């Protein structure tokens, strides 16, 4: 994908700037970030993993590569380039790397076709999707066939925030990420819960970035609202807390006490280690964060550090 952007920047609305070793990716949408070697170099990825004490990583595409704004041809091409590049990295270090695909979510037929292709050709067991699609909620009925196909294929879905531009009140202090990202996850999840989408897809495995946004820590408010407000139980009679317990969460909350609460709420078998590497919001010592969790048992540590993720991948834990 990097090569394609360098060759035809106008086609992908992005460009590569700078000298080797100090390059940046600049997207016309407004994203700009360093071109870290571990985005594309398997050896660099392993070096980072070794530094953090991580044996196996599932490589998820960087959200700027979702290309949800693009027409079907560009979106399909971008997804294929990204996914085939990830497959090359996995093939280079198959004992330590696993692949996770991006799919052109705004074009459901193309998204399903690409999901089927990466499962068939690369053996991928996971796809990453944005929490919204250019302002559209994942709970919209037109996205339901994609989620249903993921369920049928046994592919787990990793949901990561995606939006462009500042929202009112979040313009300063990097709040677009600090608050905006977990807020987007919270909005997505509330819509999935109250719309009945999760009721329709009981076998769907969804893992939420950043500890599930704000939802786990305000689940009592959703439960109360579901009980007293007709709007919230018009399409789903299932308690939000029961639906939350079906979901999976990464451990990326940075605070050991918050991680303890999440594990107490959903169980260690529904929490897996997250890193956010190589961005600056990464946890550079994720094992230490987990080890600092109050009352951490050896069974919980095993689940969070490998058991939950391996189960989602269909591998022996």
Question: What's this model, at a glance?
Answer:
The chain is of the alpha/beta class. The chain contains 14 helices and 13 strands.
Helix content range: 40-55%
Query: How far apart are the first and last residues' alpha carbons, in Å?
Result: 33 Å
Level-2 CATH architecture: Alpha-Beta Barrel
Shape: globular
| Alpha-beta content class | alpha/beta
Strand tally, please? 13
| Mean pLDDT level | 95
Largest beta-sheet details: 6 strands, parallel
The CATH homologous superfamily is called Metal-dependent hydrolases
Helix count equals 14
Which CATH class? Answer: Alpha Beta
Question: Which regions are unreliable across 5 or more consecutive residues at pLDDT < 50?
Answer: none
Radius of gyration in whole Å, from Cα? 19 Å
What is the H/E string? HHEEEHEHEEHEEEHEHHHEHHEHEHH
Beta-strand percentage range: 5-15%
What's the arrangement of strands in the largest beta sheet? 6-7-10-11-12-13
